[in-house]
Amino acid sequence: FSYNFFKSKECFRWDQSTCFDKSSEYYELTHNGLDTMFRRVVSEMVLMTQDNNTDISYTSSRYALMYRVGAVDLYQGLQSSAQLYVDYSVNRYAQVKSLFLIVLVVLVLVEVLYVLLVLLPYLKESDAAAVKVGGLLSHVPPELNLPNHVRWCISSHTHRGKEEGGGAGMAGDGDADNDASQHDGRRMSQSGGSNSGMV
User: What stretch of H or E contains 134?
Assistant: First the structure.
């Protein structure tokens, strides 16, 4: 883009056969980049506004330069440069779109792999553990209030873990198990005593 403005030595007309040759007075102006051409056309327009009205005509050199250079070479050169910017922007947009599509495909693959390799095996193991726990709970005596017992064990374990912490918390796990066993024994003895009283 900047090459067309400051470094180009070529004619900017779309029809190259109509470019000025080296013998033309406009050759140097039209073959030294858009910046030089633009500044010259603007300066001629400013000078033209300062001329006397009697000097302004269609045959004046200023008007001829604006018509022959500004309306053709400069205009077409600016259009070509603007198209370069548009093509560059569209190309970058296409690259960004492709990048987003790649990221989307990678994310979808990651989700699928997560479901297949992590979530489904975890669900299978959870189902197997639930079956084992259900089998163990089927052996619990019906006299035991199982939901209250489970809540009591969890709360006791959590309370001891907060108080003791670390290794002491591990020791507290054994105490909690002993307490739970004693609690179960008391409940079962009470239920057994009530059954014997009824007999």
Answer: helix 120-137
Determine the Cα–Cα distance for residues 173 and 167; give it in Å rounded to an integer. 10
Which residue's entry shows tokens 């064990």? 153
Which helix (H) or strand (E) is 56 found in, with range? Answer: none
The tens digit of pLDDT for each residue in 86-138 reads: 998 999 999 999 999 999 999 999 999 999 999 999 999 988 888 887 777 77
Report d(CA 76, CA 37) in Å as an integer.
12
pLDDT in tens, 164-194: 655 444 444 444 445 544 545 454 444 444 3
Cβ atoms of 177 and 157 closer than 8 Å = no
Long-range contacts of 135-142 (CB under 8 A, 24+ apart): 141/188, 141/191
Q: State the burial class of residue 13 (Cβ atoms within 10 Å of its Cβ: 0-12, 13-18, 19+).
A: middle
